[in-house]
Specification:
Order of helices and strands: EEEEEEEH
Number of strands: 7
Shape: globular
CATH topology: PH-domain like
Structural class: alpha+beta
CATH class: Mainly Beta
Largest sheet: 7 strands, antiparallel
Radius of gyration: 13 Å
Distance between the termini: 12 Å
Length: 107
């Protein structure tokens, strides 16, 4: 398992006005920050109802953190074909890494 620090730009919310922020995976912790506001910083095991929907092609996931729902996407509004493809690849890499780290923490 790789315990390196991962960071990526992610968009929070659905539809027309998602908020852009920074998603960080460090060890067994996932955090999300929008501007100066830290939305969450929790162990991966505290993510509730973690779902990577088939229709997002692994470019987005939904979860609940301490009772608050989040839809986080690696695709922002107004994508080109190239940025769409990079967002899909980034999402798939994050899904694999988060899944591996969760599995490791449950051993």
């Amino acid at each position: 398992m790789n315990d390196s620090i991962w960071t990526a730009t992610a968009w929070w919310g659905k539809w027309f006005m998602p908020k852009v922020g920074k998603l960080t995976l460090e060890g067994q912790r996932l955090s999300f920050q929008v501007g100066e506001q830290l939305e969450f910083d929790v162990p991966l095991e505290e993510l509730q109802e973690l779902t990577w929907h088939w229709y997002s092609f692994s470019a987005a996931f939904e979860t609940t953190v301490r009772g608050k729902p989040y839809f986080l996407s690696f695709l922002g509004p107004g994508n080109t074909l190239g940025s769409w493809w990079r967002g899909l690849q980034r999402g798939r890499q994050w899904r694999a890494e988060m899944t591996a780290r969760l599995a490791h923490s449950r051993q």
